Amino acid sequence: MEFRDYYATLGVPKTASEKEIKQAFRRQARKHHPDVNPGNAGAETKFKELNEAYEVLGDPEKRKKYDELGANWKAYEQAQKAGFDPRAGGGPFGGGGWGFGSGTSSGDAGGSGYRTVSPEEFQEMFGEGANPFSDFFTTFFGGGGPDASAPRARGGRGRRQQHDVTPEYEVTISLEEAFSGTTRKVSLGGSDRERSFEVRFPAGIRDGQKVRAASEGGDVYFRVRLAPHGRFEARGEHDLATRVPVTIPVAVLGGEVEVAPLVGARIRAKVPPGTRQGAVLRLRGHGRPVLGKPGERGDLLVTLEVQVPTELTPEERRHYEALAALRTQPV
């Protein structure tokens, strides 16, 4: 199987940071998402490739293994298709076990120029209990590492031939829906095999969290994505952030500013004298709900933007000129 360059798939160099990889994935995923391109098979294929690439490069441990193994990374996929157990003999490299690297033949390797990798060496290469397969591989090929713990297939001869995998889909909800909780009716599949779910997203759910939904055709995971908001931004686990204008007199002398929250009645917040541009007020208990803890909420972070008037009445101009004259006098 041809080696797939995940860096090229996401359009980033191998030296890209985690942040750059995440930004590249989100940018392209939005562009090629099936919901944005209904009926476009090419976009759907590209979206799957992007997810496969990000499942590996977005995970520091998987990325490290991918970089180390290079073209051998796909050998896992081939081995999993064949139901191969890397701890047992009969590997796909002409000998017993995995055949990475060079060395003298050992045991039943049959002089292939490769040697058997022991379970201890396998754990040293990939980490004890680690699963070198991405979720994409698991979803499509029932994959898993040497210690995969997925359920056994129903029936069969007792050996894991295929794993039960819970499919996963993304659902975008608004910040208000995540704040208050919501129920969505979600349909999957074509018209001939459509499956519908009533999915309940609880108050306080965060971006990236998953909700499990059941149906006659099997369970499905729905991963939450928060849609961008015009006035608010989710911060941390439970906080919200917004910006509020403040006049020069209030910034200089102190006073109050009115804040419109995401949900609920307006809040009056105190502004201390001598407030600078960009100062942040923390309004405790006015952020997002804490999932599973009714009545508990994060904080609302309010960035103050000092407003400089662009047009002055004659009287205002006289006052500013008088103030300027006072400020320029020697102390």
TrEMBL record:
Name a single GO biological process.
Answer: protein refolding
Read off the PROSITE patterns from this record. Answer: DNAJ_1, DNAJ_2
Q: Where is the composition biased (Gly residues)?
A: 88-113
Describe the location of the J domain by residue ranges: 5-70
Q: In this entry, which stretches build a coiled coil?
A: none
GO MF terms on file? DNA binding; unfolded protein binding
Recorded hits in SMART domains, A to Z, give: DnaJ (SM00271)
Q: What is this protein called?
A: Curved DNA-binding protein
Q: What is the lineage of its organism?
A: Bacteria, Pseudomonadati, Acidobacteriota, Vicinamibacteria, Vicinamibacterales
